[in-house]
Amino acid sequence: MTNDGDGSGYVHDPDRPDAEADDRDPPTDPRTTRAYVEGASSAESFGRRGWALVGALFVAFVLVPGIILYLPYAGGAIRSLGLTYRDAYLVLPLVPALVLAALAVWTAVGNR
């Protein structure tokens, strides 16, 4: 950064390297997240919330799509619940979406 001297403000000179970059001290510890807390084991840093998220993602991306693929063969079970095929196709993806939303709120409130 340079100043043209007449008080008009900032003037960018791309040919001149950033002079202020040499004056700054390098950061003493570049690790800024809680995942890098010294002395914390990997299971302790991942925690209950992490495993709940893994479980919810497994249900949302593996289990529910598998159930949706099985729906045409499960007509009797769907009718016994009082649902139509359309209802089942709408409700099945909605359940993990609500679970993921509740998990997000739980995590956000717990990490205050």
The counted number of beta strands is 2
User: In terms of structural class, how would the helical and strand content be classed?
Assistant: mainly alpha
- Read across the widest sheet, the strand sequence of neighbours is 1-2
- Rg over alpha carbons: 27 Å
Helix content: 55-70%
Strand content: under 5%
| Spatial shape | elongated
Write structural notes for this entry.
The protein is mainly alpha-helical and 112 residues long. 59% of the residues lie in helices and 4% in strands. The protein contains 4 helices and 2 strands. It has helices at 19-23, 42-70, 75-80, 85-110, and strands at residues 2-3, 10-11. A two-stranded antiparallel ribbon has the order 1-2. The relative contact order is 0.09.
